[in-house]
Amino acid sequence: xxxxxxxxxxxxxxxxxxxxxxxxxxxxxxxxxxxxxxxxxxxxxxxxxxxxxxxxxxxxxxxxxxxx
Length: 68
Fold this sequence. Notes:
Blueprint (H helix, E strand, L loop, with lengths): L1 H17 L5 H25 L3 H9 L8
Helix pairs in contact: 1-2
């Protein structure tokens, strides 16, 4: 729910900033941040729903397999 509220807030800011050409850089930054947040949510979801084998393969690159 917080994600949706944050999205609404961000989209309102984008809408307001689109009225001013001088604020275009800030508007682009808001959009990029929103995209990054959504990508993180998707990545986290994919990690949580990996099979054990997929997760083990994913963790090989992290370096935690050498511990133990």
